[in-house]
Every structure is written in structure tokens, then in C-alpha cells.
């Protein structure tokens, strides 16, 4: 039991930090433009594939730096020539623009790299077990992922709260007109934040690519979870996104390791009364591990009904 | 969501100075009935004109998609609710219909096939009430996110409830095993087509009638300004729930028609991808008008079927078309076409022809160049093992050489530059024509 708790906690925190790498950019972009970027997970996917492609020629480390820069550049261009033009039509077309973009990026990735997973490997220098808990080797690469995510989290926090640029960004989030009056180029700030946000998602992609599966459906799998994180945490709230990332990360990781169903619980209690079949029978024998993937959505629906601002948000979604 | 008002053509019409009330009242009834008679005529005559099996299959798909898109537009266009999970009701409608068909066939119940879509509609309505009550308390992003959450919940749930949803392979049914009326077996596709066409017309009429009721007007009002509706003494949530349930009902009918057409329901029916397709179709057609989703459904089905024959990467073109519509014509295809209505009525539309012809050349050049670039990239990146020789528009060349790339690149870039140079003239011609129209109608 203790083994399960320790390993799942480590994995959960790791997954949560990865989620936060993406959710931080997404929630910053939302605070600024008031639009949820549907394509955010697609930039994460682009990061993974670019990282893979670059690592084929130059090794993992160049990819770790170059892929996010390239993806961030693409993100900035998308903001400048796409979103900014759509902005005048209103929020719904903006949302739909990013929706279409996600669709197109997935198609392009499928076109270039195919539908099958690509062989994105952990760099040899990190391919060893870091330590052993209860007979399970914990890979060093996962520790590396954790260190990178935490380092970026701290750096982001420092930039946003301690530097001049960070203060201007924070001001532009709430009072864009006033900031523009003071002589700052607000559209440029928006473009910068969009670029950095998508770049952060790409960092998550590059470091998650070798550990998870780098495949054309990875954006589709992760995108909705990302929404759950930012909405549950409270739209526009970085601390909320952080808390929700960890929450979802832990919940999902623990759920996967719990092979418990109604039937097995009752059996342990000495009751053996399972319905023979049908929908009720399915519900009776389904394990928590199986419903793991839907827990975040259940959480999303419940939170939005009970508290539309999210856990720590102060503005309505 | 009030920004949907920008897309609705009412503003454009008002700007162009059209006045619907100047039409004589006596013509009103004819003008109202005529489009429906034309639509019915088209539905009846279409299989006589396009007799091939492929065409028949495609028209059946169109009919289903028209109902589905129209039901979606009850939410997005008329009530201003952006849903990412509309396929939930479509899929559940399909599943309940398939199960009902199997029950009827197994027990030899005296129920004919043509009434089965009612089962789908009722299923859609029931789940619409359930999910509508919890998701419509707020519009805007909250609603969109809850709809996404519910869609993911139901889609994942369909994999768990194996006995109802049939897992990967789905649930099948046999439409010919129902009670036969007038010796119609519904085995041949043509009979199924007429069944779909009839339901399509009934549903479209019903949905159009709803837009004319006070409820329909209140839906528009809730879209524009929910606060003011509240001041008038109506509860916006009640109106949203009602619109949501009705829309789910028609989505369920569409799902039932799909289940009858394919004789199968599987979890792809209620997946997020299906929800995306209906959103794309509706928006491409145009959400500001009643006819828009019909246009969108027809165009998208046509593209899905014909483009997938022409190229393997048709979904990419589909996505690019959607982005282009969102960026340059948020009123959709129907919105673009109807913009010209006032000018046609005023008789000044011909002034646009030279400018349009001028813009057509660069536009086609840009289009051809872009398509060539995409196809060559596809050939080189994905199909390189099959050789890099390819044929486009009857011209054979080797995509590994530099020359085709230069030509295609030059076409795309030249087209784009020329289009940019020509666009001010189009804008000027538009301004000129609409000013003239205003003077004539004033």
C-alpha cells in the first residue's frame, strides 16, 4: 500500500507539473484575450514532434531548446496574423478559429509523421534508474521531467512578479487601455505572451514526448484535460491552475492504480449479489481504473455547476 | 455571446437599407409557402436526376446532416449557445433507435419503420432535458465547457456500458424486419432515401416554425441580451433549456435516421469528432440564417464524399476551408450569398461583376498554387516510398525536382499579391453598389 502511495504520488505530481506547464500558458492567454485557446494542446504536440525531428539530427538537448523556440515563433505568428484579425468578429469566431487550427494542426502532423507513434527515445545520458522504491526502479528521466517543470514554474513566477516585463504583462491583463496609454505596445505584449505560452506547451511536449507516446492523437487526448484544469482551477488564475493541475494529476494517477469495483468491494464484505448482466451489470463490475479517464470531466461538470468561477478564480468563465 | 449579433445578417440588411415591409401583404403567404414547395420538389426529384447508387447514398447522408445541422443551429445561431457536444444527442438517438428496432423485430410488434425516428427524437429529448437543466444556467464559455465535459463523459461512458453501446463494434439492426406498410420493405436505398427526405422536410418545417413563434424570438433575445430579457419578465434559463431540449430532440431524430440508413450505431456517433463535424458544417454554411446550416450540410457532405475520392488529405482542406470562413466570412456561405440580396433587389448588383471577375483570376491562382504545394508536400513527405512522380490537373511531374515547387510557389505568392492589390477595388465596387441601392430603395 505504501509503495502504491509513494509511486503514485511521484507520478501524479509529475503529471500534474506537466499539465501545469501547459495550463499556465493557456490561462495567461485566456486572461489576456478572453478566449480559450483550443489549439493549445496542438502546440504541445508540435513541440513533441519538432523535438523528435530535431533530435534525430542533433540529439535531444538541441531539440529541447530549439523546438520550443520554433513552436513559440509559430504561436506568435498565429496570434499576429490569425487571432488578431478574427478578434474583431468577437469571441465565438475566435474560439472557432483555434478549434479549426487544432483540426488543421492534427491533420498536418498526421500528414507529415503519419498516424503511428514515432520512435522518440529518452536520451542515453538519462536512461538509468534514479532510485529504487520497494523493488520498483524509478527512471531518472522522470526525475529530470520533474526538475524541468518545477524550474520553469519558478522562473515563470519570478518573471511575472519580479521583473518589469512581468509587471507590464500583469497590468495589461487587467487594464489594457491604461497600459497602452502609458506608451506600451499592448498588441505586442499579447503576441509575446501567446508566443511564450505556446512555447511553454512545446517544452512540455518535448520532455513528455519520450516518456509518453509521441503520436498524432496526443493533442486530442490531452486537450480536453487541459480545459478541465484551467476551468476547474478558475479561468485566469495561475495559482488555481497550479492547484488544479496537481489535483487532476494525482486523481488520475491514483485512479489508474485502483483496481476496485462495486462487485469486488461487496465481495470483500462477504456479499455476493451482483446483477447478472445489462447496464447495471456493467456498472457493477467496472473498476475505478476503468473510469479513471472520465473523473476529470465529472469534476469539471460538478465544479461548473456548483462554482462557475472555478476553485480559485474570481471571474466567471 | 452577444457578439454573434455581428454575424447575423440583420445588421448587413439594415445597412444596405432593405425594407422587407415594402413587399405587398397579399404575396406573403405565397412567398412563405413557395420555398417549401421548391424544397419538397427538389427532394422528390433529386433521385430521378442523380440516379447512381453513390449519388443516392450521398443524398441520404445530406438529408441526415441537414436535420443535424439545423438542430445545431437552434443552439448556436438562434440562442447563442456554442456546444461542443451536440453529437451526444445524435448518438443516443441512434442507439435507442437501434435497440427499439431490435425489440420490435424480436417481438414482431406492429410498428412500421417510418415512425422509428420518433424513438430517437424522444431519446434526444429525454437526455436534452437531463443535461440541459445542468448546463444552461449560464451561456458563453461556461456552457461551452460543460457541453465539452458532458460530451467526454458520455463518450467515455459508452466504452464502459458495454451491454448498451456494444463496445467497439457497436449495435446492429435490420431495418427490413419491421412491420411492412403498403409492401414497402425499406431494403433498397431509394426507399430509405425517401424516408429520410420526408423526415428531413418535416423536421426543417418544424424547426422553421419554431423560429417564428414567440419562443423563437425570445431565443434570439436571450442571445442578444439576456439581462434585458430578464427585465421583461422571462427567465433566460428556461428559454435556453427549452431551446436546448428541442434542439436535442431534432438531433435525436437525425441520429435515428443515421441508424436506419446504416443499420448500425457505434460509439463514433456520439464522439467529439462528430460534434466537431456538425459545428464545422453549420458554421461553414452560416449561422446567421435559417438556410445557412442546410447549405453547410450539403456542402460539407459533398466535400466529405467527393474530396475523399480525390485526395487522401481532404480533412486538411476541410479544416483550412473552415479557418478561411471564420477569418474572412464569419457569416458563412449563406451569409456571403445573402449579402447580395438587397443589391439584387435594388438592381445594382451588376456593378460588382467587373470587380469580382478581376478578383477571380488571382483567387484561382492562389488556390491552385496552394493546393499544388500541399499535394507536393504530401507526396514528398508521406508517399515518397511510392515514388515522387505525380499528376495534378492532368500535368505529370516529379515532386522531387525544384521546378514544380518554384512554379507552385510563384503561383501562390503571385495570386496572393495580386489578390491584395485587387481587393480595394472590390471594396470600392461594393461600396458603390450598396450606396446606389440605398438611394434607390430610400
UniProtKB/TrEMBL annotation, chain A:
Keywords: Amino-acid transport, Cell membrane, Membrane, Transmembrane, Transmembrane helix, Transport. It is a multi-pass membrane protein. Pfam families: BPD_transp_2. GO terms for biological process: amino acid transport. The chain crosses the membrane at residues 12-30, 60-83, 95-113, 140-160, 189-213, 225-251, 283-306. GO terms for cellular component: plasma membrane. InterPro entries: ABC_transp_permease, BCAA_transport_permease. It comes from the Bacteria. One of its GO terms (molecular function) is transmembrane transporter activity. It is found in: Cell membrane. Belongs to the binding-protein-dependent transport system permease family. LivHM subfamily. This is Branched-chain amino acid ABC transporter permease.
From TrEMBL, chain B:
It is found in: Cell membrane. It comes from the Bacteria. InterPro entries: ABC_transp_permease (IPR001851), LivM-like (IPR043428). The chain crosses the membrane at residues 27-50, 56-75, 87-109, 115-135, 192-210, 241-265, 277-304, 316-343, 355-382, 402-423. It is a multi-pass membrane protein. GO terms for cellular component: plasma membrane. Keywords: Cell membrane, Membrane, Transmembrane, Transmembrane helix. The keyword rRNA processing does not apply. One of its GO terms (molecular function) is branched-chain amino acid transmembrane transporter activity. PANTHER family: ABC TRANSPORTER ATP-BINDING PROTEIN, HIGH-AFFINITY BRANCHED-CHAIN AMINO ACID TRANSPORT SYSTEM PERMEASE. This is Branched-chain amino acid ABC transporter permease. It comes from Methylobacterium terricola.
Amino acid at each position: 500500500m505504501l509503495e502504491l502511495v509513494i509511486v503514485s504520488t511521484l507520478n501524479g505530481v509529475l503529471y500534474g507539473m506537466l499539465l501545469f506547464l501547459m495550463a499556465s500558458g493557456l490561462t495567461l492567454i485566456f486572461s489576456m484575450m478572453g478566449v480559450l485557446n483550443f489549439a493549445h494542446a496542438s502546440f504541445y504536440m508540435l513541440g513533441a514532434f519538432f523535438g523528435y525531428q530535431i533530435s534525430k539530427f542533433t540529439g535531444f538537448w538541441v531539440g529541447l531548446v530549439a523546438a520550443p523556440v520554433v513552436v513559440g515563433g509559430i504561436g506568435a505568428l498565429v496570434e499576429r496574423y490569425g487571432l488578431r484579425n478574427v478578434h474583431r468578429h468577437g469571441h465565438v469566431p475566435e474560439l472557432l478559429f483555434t478549434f479549426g487550427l487544432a483540426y488543421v494542426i492534427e491533420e498536418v502532423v498526421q500528414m507529415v509523421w503519419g498516424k503511428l507513434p514515432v520512435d522518440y527515445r529518452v536520451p542515453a545520458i538519462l536512461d538509468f534508474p534514479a532510485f529504487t522504491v520497494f523493488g520498483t526502479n524509478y527512471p531518472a528521466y522522470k526525475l529530470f521531467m520533474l526538475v524541468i517543470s518545477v524550474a520553469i514554474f519558478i522562473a515563470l513566477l519570478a518573471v511575472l512578479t519580479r521583473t518589469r516585463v512581468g509587471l507590464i504583462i500583469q497590468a495589461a491583463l487587467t487594464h489594457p487601455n491604461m497600459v497602452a496609454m502609458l506608451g506600451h505596445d499592448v498588441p505586442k505584449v499579447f503576441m509575446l505572451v501567446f508566443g511564450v505560452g505556446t512555447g511553454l506547451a512545446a517544452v512540455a511536449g518535448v520532455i513528455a514526448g519520450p516518456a509518453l507516446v509521441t503520436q498524432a492523437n496526443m493533442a486530442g487526448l490531452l486537450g480536453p484535460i487541459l480545459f478541465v484544469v484551467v476551468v476547474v482551477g478558475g479561468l485566469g488564475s495561475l495559482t488555481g491552475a497550479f492547484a488544479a493541475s496537481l489535483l487532476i494529476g494525482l486523481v488520475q494517477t491514483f485512479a489508474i492504480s485502483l483496481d476496485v469495483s462495486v462487485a469486488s468491494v461487496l465481495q470483500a464484505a462477504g456479499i455476493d449479489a451482483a446483477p447478472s448482466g445489462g447496464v447495471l451489470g456493467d456498472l457493477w463490475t467496472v473498476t475505478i481504473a476503468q473510469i479513471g479517464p472520465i473523473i476529470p470531466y465529472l469534476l469539471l461538470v460538478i465544479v461548473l455547476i456548483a462554482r462557475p468561477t472555478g476553485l480559485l478564480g474570481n471571474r466567471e468563465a | 455571446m452577444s457578439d454573434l449579433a455581428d454575424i447575423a445578417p440583420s445588421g448587413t440588411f439594415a445597412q444596405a437599407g432593405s425594407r422587407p415591409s415594402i413587399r405587398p401583404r397579399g404575396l406573403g403567404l405565397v412567398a412563405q409557402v413557395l420555398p417549401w414547395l421548391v424544397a419538397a420538389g427538389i427532394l422528390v426529384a433529386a433521385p430521378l436526376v442523380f440516379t447512381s447508387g453513390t449519388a443516392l447514398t450521398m443524398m441520404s447522408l445530406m438529408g441526415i446532416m441537414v436535420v443535424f445541422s439545423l438542430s445545431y443551429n437552434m443552439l448556436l445561431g438562434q440562442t447563442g449557445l456554442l456546444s461542443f457536444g451536440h453529437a451526444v444527442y445524435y448518438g443516443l438517438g441512434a442507439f435507442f433507435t437501434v435497440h427499439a428496432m431490435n425489440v420490435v423485430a424480436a417481438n414482431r410488434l406492429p410498428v412500421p419503420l417510418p415512425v422509428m425516428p420518433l424513438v430517437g427524437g424522444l431519446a434526444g429529448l429525454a437526455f436534452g432535458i437531463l443535461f440541459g437543466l445542468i448546463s444552461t444556467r449560464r451561456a458563453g464559455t461556461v456552457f461551452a465547457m460543460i457541453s465539452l465535459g458532458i460530451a467526454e463523459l458520455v463518450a467515455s461512458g459508452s466504452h464502459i456500458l458495454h451491454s448498451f453501446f456494444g463496445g467497439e463494434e457497436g449495435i446492429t439492426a435490420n431495418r427490413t424486419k419491421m412491420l411492412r406498410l403498403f409492401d414497402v420493405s425499406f431494403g433498397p436505398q431509394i426507399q430509405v432515401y425517401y424516408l429520410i427526405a420526408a423526415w428531413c422536410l418535416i423536421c426543417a418545417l418544424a424547426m422553421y416554425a419554431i423560429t417564428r413563434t414567440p419562443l423563437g424570438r425570445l431565443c434570439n433575445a436571450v442571445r442578444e441580451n439576456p439581462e434585458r430579457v430578464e427585465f421583461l419578465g422571462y427567465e433566460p434559463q428556461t428559454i435556453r433549456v427549452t431551446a436546448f431540449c428541442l434542439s436535442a430532440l431534432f438531433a435525436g431524430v437525425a441520429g435515428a435516421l443515421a441508424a436506419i440508413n446504416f443499420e448500425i450505431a457505434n460509439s463514433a456517433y456520439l464522439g467529439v469528432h462528430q460534434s466537431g463535424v456538425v459545428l464545422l458544417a453549420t458554421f461553414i454554411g452560416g449561422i446567421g440564417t435559417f438556410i445557412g446550416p442546410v447549405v453547410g450540410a450539403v456542402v460539407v457532405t459533398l466535400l466529405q464524399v467527393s474530396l475523399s475520392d480525390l485526395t487522401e488529405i481532404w480533412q486538411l482542406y476541410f479544416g483550412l476551408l473552415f479557418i478561411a470562413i471564420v477569418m474572412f466570412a464569419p457569416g458563412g456561405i449563406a451569409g456571403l450569398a445573402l449579402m447580395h440580396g438587397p443589391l439584387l433587389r435594388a438592381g445594382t448588383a451588376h456593378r460588382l461583376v467587373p470587380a469580382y471577375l478581376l478578383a477571380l483570376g488571382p483567387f484561382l491562382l492562389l488556390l491552385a498554387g496552394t493546393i499544388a504545394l500541399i499535394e507536393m508536400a504530401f507526396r514528398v513527405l508521406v508517399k515518397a516510398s511510392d515514388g515522387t512522380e505525380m499528376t495534378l490537373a492532368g500535368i505529370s511531374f516529379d515532386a522531387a525536382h525544384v521546378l514544380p515547387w518554384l512554379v507552385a510557389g510563384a503561383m501562390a505568392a503571385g495570386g496572393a499579391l495580386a489578390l491584395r492589390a485587387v481587393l480595394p477595388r472590390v471594396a470600392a465596387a461594393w461600396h458603390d453598389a450598396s450606396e446606389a441601392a440605398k438611394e434607390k430603395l430610400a
